[in-house]
Amino acid sequence: MEPITTRRVALKRPPNPSIRLSFGIFWLADLVATVFLFLDPYASELNPITIRFYELIGLPGVVLAGSIYAAGIVLIGHYLSKPYDALFAIGAVLVYALCASNNVILLLTGEAFLEALVS
């Protein structure tokens, strides 16, 4: 009988801790703002997957969808080679920063960021 060996997956982290911290902060800000979008009658979420999860299980579905997105980004970054892993993480930080900014502005003013720029 052979002993059972377990194989651990060690995820590569982007080399710069500030990238990881920024990702976590913007992801959390976007997640919190997205949850509030579902509680506000005048604001609406644009992501159809998040909306579907909300319809299926309520606010925990919003958190689940956001966590799945973050896990996907971490896994994709794990499989990319250097320097693409760091560039991908920076891109993810910028996307979350844009989404979080848009959602917070939408909650505060009732108008999306792009709509506010056009009008």
TrEMBL record:
Domain of life (superkingdom): Archaea
Record field: transmembrane: 21-39, 59-80, 87-109
Keywords, sorted A to Z: Membrane, Transmembrane, Transmembrane helix
Protein name per the record: DUF5658 domain-containing protein
Organism: Haloterrigena gelatinilytica
